């Protein structure tokens, strides 16, 4: 049974998830798009993206274990994250975006550590620094700075000086980046940032037709999001300080998705919340149906990509 396979933290389960991720990418890149294996630069991008996704999975798994987001030790969250990635296989060509998302996941972990009540200023500064660095890779990621101020409502709101910590992080990164660019005698790529933001704003309400596989992938992710939110808000058993932080990042992630049309920022929160739901399903056959349905999604998506060649 699938539930037996995923409800453990054995290394073999993690390896299987990684292999599935690698196979899904390989099928899309070299069988569906029929890209040549001789393109070294493209292979470098793919391998870099895979390494970043591997680190994302590793960190997501540790976040789940350290913060006891799920009641049992399982691999549901990393399995769901991998499924989402294969549903949107073009992400393997977006190394900067995947890198930005990795930094946001690290920021999520840093915010989760605030509940200990220790070194709050340092943790807030680290979180701000990570988000700003993510913003250098993808400008819209800067919206996640809102999470720092929202977190202050729960931790250290009485300390007014804490509210200026994100601004201090911005100044710090600006000085360091300016110094590096000055040494390298390189101009700041302000045009790339403004062009991206302008283009996204101009296309904000442009819901042009997407390919069938992409449309189905978006609808599938939206359905899982609605189920996860419905179960979370209507079942108090899921409520905890850690899950509240995850929900917080999810809502900010949805704002980022609205502006940038990049759904990757919701993968980690949805994976964690849906894992909370799946692990509490007591009817074994229902749990198996849910898991098999989720596992079939990437296969159906890749098949549609193959049929439509898109």
Automatic annotation (TrEMBL):
The keyword Membrane applies. The chain crosses the membrane at residues 12-30, 42-63, 75-92, 129-150, 162-184, 212-234, 246-277, 289-307. It comes from the Bacteria. Keywords: Membrane, Transmembrane, Transmembrane helix. This is Beta-carotene 15,15'-monooxygenase. It comes from Capnocytophaga ochracea.
């Amino acid at each position: 049974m699938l539930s037996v396979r995923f409800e453990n933290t054995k290394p073999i389960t993690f390896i299987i998830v990684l292999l599935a991720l690698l196979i899904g990418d390989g099928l899309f890149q070299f069988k569906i798009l029929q890209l040549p294996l001789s393109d070294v630069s493209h292979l470098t991008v793919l391998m870099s993206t895979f390494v970043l996704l591997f680190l994302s999975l590793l960190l997501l798994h540790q976040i789940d274990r350290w913060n006891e987001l799920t009641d049992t030790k399982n691999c549901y969250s990393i399995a769901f994250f991998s499924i989402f990635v294969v549903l949107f296989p073009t992400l393997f060509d977006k190394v900067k975006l995947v890198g930005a998302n990795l930094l946001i996941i690290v920021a999520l972990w840093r915010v989760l550590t605030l509940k200990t009540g220790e070194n709050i200023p340092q943790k807030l500064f680290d979180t701000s620094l990570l988000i700003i660095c993510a913003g250098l890779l993808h400008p819209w990621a800067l919206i996640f700075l809102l999470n720092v101020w929202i977190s202050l409502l729960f931790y250290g709101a009485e300390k007014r000086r804490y509210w200026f910590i994100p601004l201090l992080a911005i100044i710090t990164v600006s000085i360091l980046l300016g110094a590096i660019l000055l040494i390298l005698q390189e101009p700041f790529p302000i045009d790339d940032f403004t062009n991206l933001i302008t283009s996204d704003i101009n296309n904000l309400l442009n819901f042009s037709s997407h390919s069938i596989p992409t449309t189905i992938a978006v609808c599938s992710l939206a359905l899982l999001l609605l189920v996860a939110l419905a179960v979370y808000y209507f079942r108090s058993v899921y409520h905890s300080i850690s899950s509240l932080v995850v929900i917080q990042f999810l809502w900010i992630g949805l704002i980022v998705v609205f502006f940038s049309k990049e759904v990757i920022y919701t993968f980690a929160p949805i994976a964690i919340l849906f894992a909370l739901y799946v692990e509490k399903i007591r009817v074994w056959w229902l749990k198996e149906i849910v898991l098999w349905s989720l596992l079939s999604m990437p296969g159906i998506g890749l098949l549609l990509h193959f049929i439509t060649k898109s």
